[in-house]
Structure formats: C-alpha cells, structure tokens
Specification:
The structure holds two protein chains of two kinds. By secondary structure, chain A is an alpha/beta fold. Helix content of chain A is about 25%, strand content about 25%. In chain A, helix 1 runs parallel beside helix 6. Chain B is about 25% helix and about 30% strand. Chain B has a single domain (about 10-80), classed as TusA-like domain (Translation Initiation Factor IF3, 2-Layer Sandwich), CATH 3.30.110.40. Chain B has a four-stranded mixed beta sheet with strand order 1-2-4-3, with helices on one face. Chain B has helices at about 25-35, 50-60, and strands at about 10-15, 40-45, 65-70, 75-80. Classes of the chains: A alpha/beta, B alpha+beta.
C-alpha cells in the first residue's frame, strides 16, 4: 500500500513539497494529495508593486491555477479544511459543488499517514480596534483587493501626511513596509507630490527593522530621503474619525493616509484544531520541521512559530529539507550529517528605491551582511518576479 | 528592597527562553496587555539583546522595571504595569 501523504495549503511551501515528493517517490511508495481552499496560486510579492503601477489583478505574474503548477501525480483537492484530527490521522474537508451550488457543501474525511501543514498566515483585522470599520482612511497591500484600493487612494492623493505602521510582529515579509516606504517616496517624487507630503515610518521595535544589522544600514537611507521614523510604536487602536493612530506606548500620530501592515495570525483551521499557540502559529521543531509532540505531522512556511521571516523564501528552503526528510523516512534511509535538517536559511531582497535593492542572506547562526544597495540586486529581484513561475513552485531550484 | 528574584511575586510569568530577537520583547508587549494596571509580570529571556531592548521599551511605554536578575543562562526581567 502506498503511503498517503496529505499537504494542506497550495502556497510556496506546500506546492514545492508536493512536487518534490511526486518527482522522487514512485507511485507504489506514496500517493500525494494537496488540499487548497481556492485552487489559485498567488505570488504575494507582486502586491508590493501594485499600488504604484497599473497591472491587471488577473496578471499571470500574480496568480495562476494551482493545477498548472503541480506535478501530474499530485492530486489537487479544492476545498476548505474544517478540522484536523491528529489523534485519528484524519482531515475533514468541505467542498461546495460548482456544478450544483444549491446542493450545499459536501463533507469528506481523508486519512493520512503523513501530514504537511502549509496553512500559511491570515490577516486578523479584528485584532486591532478601529480596523474592522472597513477601509476608509487606512490601507494595506497585503492582498489583491487591498493593493488595488491603495492604488486608487494614491491616484487621488493631493499631498499631506502619510503614515506607515506595522500592527504587530510577526507579519509576512518583514522588509515589505520598508520597501513600500522607499517605493512610495519614489512615486511621490515622480508625481511632484513629495514636497507636499510628509512620510512617517512607525515600527514596534527599538529600530526600523527586526534584524539589527539591516536596521543600521537602512536608517541612514530613510534619513537621506527625509522620511521621519518613530520606533517603539506598537499600534493599539486607530481612530478613523480623528485620523490618528494610537500606540500601546502612549503616543498618538495623526495622518491623512495610513498604510498599515495588518495584524497576522495562523490559519483558522489550526486554531480550530488546537494545533497552534495563542496566535495560531504551530509549535515546530526548528530543524526537523516536525510539529512538536506530533509524529508524522510537519509544518513549514508562514504557519510555524519559528524565529525566521514569514516569507516565500523561508518556505522554499524548508520545503526542500522536508521533502528530503519524508522521502528518507518512507524508504527507511538514514540521513547523514545535516541532511534533512533546516538551518534557518533565508534569502530575500529589500528594495531601497531609485531602482536599487540589497539582499539579505542568513540562517539561525549567521545574521545577514547586506551589501550596499545597487541596481544589480534590484534587477535580480525583478528577474525573480518573472522567473518564479517557471522554477520555484516546481521545486527546480 | 527586592533583591532576590525568588522574593518577587508576579501575576504572570512568560518564558521566552530560546526565542530570539525580537521574540522576547514581543512576548513582553503582548503579555503586558494581559495583566491589570499595577500587576507584575516576569519575562525570562536568553537573548542578549533583551538586556538593552527590554529596559528601553519599559521606560518608553511608561511602565516600571523592578529588576533584571541574571540566572543560569538567562535573565529574569520583572516589570510592573503602570498605566
């Protein structure tokens, strides 16, 4: 009997894991099923650029059918996972029939031998008072709709005070609010609005970025561009009437336009199944990626509680390690040295505006040594934005 | 005077050992919301960065640091919520 491997989530981590397993394992060794709620694969880094360009929300650079990215041996099940029952190795999925919507939802129960949780993060607007009233004067670029609304808001922005803030840590793609700030500065200059605009960047930590060396490199760049910064600012509430954002530390900052990285939590199903911590992140072994206390259950990508960035790059490196580990386990092969162990490897870019970027490469042991921002890294990032679709989900690099 | 860590009774203790920057500071910020004004909280951190970040945040946020007590391989920070 082939082993039943179920992967929940068709993001970067889930898709790469599924494809690598399908390529390496024979049909008699394992049957691989990937469950995704939408069946659409989104390249989230694209959202950062959308407020500043006129790209189509249906662009092939943003979204494609998950099926087209999966190895033919991976079964794709489009449905909502309602419950994960680790005690009985079961996953409960509900699917609404596209052909007969009136027939309601169909429930099915799948049984696994090995389970991979690639359930990602979700935006938790309810976690910050003032956000739920709907996007009026505050904006974000953490989904397609948000990025498009922000584009609209910028197109009619006459100048004034723009505040960029981060609701809490962790959030997806740590460099994104900094990158957004630099790209915004470029955009305002191109539209002759910069001299009529004050930009203020707020961050919860005592510096402008999570990693100290990167913060030290970026702070002078912000200053050069006359972007004001305020650290130790943990948003507590937004008063949309008065257009102010208040912090837990007791400060109040006024704005005309607020761009906020929304609060993040782990997936609903993780919380509903009792598999997460108080924020819904899955307690995960930092090297083996096994869910703590659960044999045959693994987690990767944004879903984990690991002290690494929630980013596609993290999921990418983790997926390669996890696939190796699962193949070895199924074949009864021994892993040698650091094979099949995740060392915290991450590689990402940080756009610093003016068609320049720097690169962050690091792991658990070694912090990044970001090179001076240059056109080279900016072009490399642009290349990745295109090449992604042909190389990364497939697990080719 | 409160000198020995064992003598300080706290309302809540957060064990952030083994989590690294910004983990312990974020745990403290989250944790302080969960205790009443006047309550005390202990944060255990093995991250060397906490020695600087925790006192700086406590001062900025207007709370009170009752002490930072070195233990075997970690530090126990005791904070009183003031507002």
């Amino acid at each position: 009997m082939p082993r039943q491997i179920i992967i929940i989530g068709g993001g970067v981590g889930g898709t790469i894991t599924a494809n690598m397993l399908a390529r390496q394992l024979r049909p008699h060794e394992a049957e691989i099923t990937l469950i995704d709620s939408t069946g659409r694969h989104v390249y989230m880094p694209f959202w950062l650029y959308m407020p500043f360009n006129d790209s189509d929300p249906q662009s092939q650079l943003l979204v494609r059918d998950e099926r087209t990215l999966l190895h033919q041996r991976v079964h794709l099940l489009i449905g909502q996972v309602e419950q994960i029952d680790v005690a009985n190795h079961q996953v409960h999925v509900s699917q609404s029939s596209a052909l007969e919507p009136a027939s309601g939802k169909r429930e099915s129960v799948l049984v696994y031998d090995d389970l991979v949780l690639a359930t990602g993060a979700r935006l938790a607007f309810a976690d910050l008072p003032g956000l739920e009233e709907g996007p009026g004067v505050w904006h974000h670029f953490y989904d397609t709709e948000g990025a498009l609304r922000l584009r609209q808001a910028l197109s009619t922005f006459p100048g004034g005070r723009i505040v960029i803030a981060v609701a809490g840590i962790p959030y997806r793609c740590p460099p994104a609010p900094l990158e957004f700030t630099f790209l915004l500065d470029d955009w305002l200059r191109q539209h002759c609005l910069r001299e009529h605009t004050v930009i203020e960047y707020l961050y919860p930590l005592p510096r402008v970025f999570t990693i100290e060396r990167v913060a030290e490199m970026v702070a002078p760049l912000l200053e050069e561009r006359e972007i004001a910064t305020r650290v130790f600012f943990t948003p507590e509430a937004i008063d949309q009437q008065r257009r102010v954002i208040r912090s837990l530390e007791g400060e109040e900052v006024p704005f005309d336009l607020l761009i906020l990285v929304p609060p993040h939590r782990g997936a609903q199903v993780i919380e509903a199944s009792g598999l997460g911590d108080s924020q819904g992140w899955i307690p995960t072994d930092r090297h083996t990626l096994q869910v703590k206390g659960q044999e045959h259950v693994y987690a990767l990508g944004d879903a984990t509680d690991l002290p690494v960035p929630k980013s596609g790059s993290t999921a990418h490196f983790e997926a390669r390690v996890l696939a190796r580990r699962l193949v070895a386990a199924i074949r009864g092969e021994a892993l040698e040295g650091d094979e099949g162990l995740y060392d915290g490897e991450v590689m990402c870019f940080l756009e610093t505006g003016n068609r320049q970027a720097t690169q962050l490469v690091f792991n658990y042991e070694h912090p990044p040594e970001p090179p001076r921002p240059s056109l080279f890294y900016h072009l490399e990032k642009q290349l990745l934005n295109h090449a992604y679709w042909h190389l990364i989900p497939q697990g080719l690099i | 005077m409160l000198e020995k860590p064992g003598e300080i009774q706290v309302d809540k203790e957060i064990d952030a050992r083994g989590s690294f920057c910004p983990g312990p500071l974020m745990e403290l910020i989250r944790g302080i919301r969960a205790i009443p004004v006047g309550g005390t909280l202990a944060l255990l951190s093995s991250d060397p960065g906490s020695a600087r970040d925790v006192p700086a945040w406590v001062q900025k946020a207007g709370h009170e640091l009752l002490g930072a007590f070195p233990e075997q391989g970690y530090t126990r920070f005791v904070v009183r919520r003031k507002r």
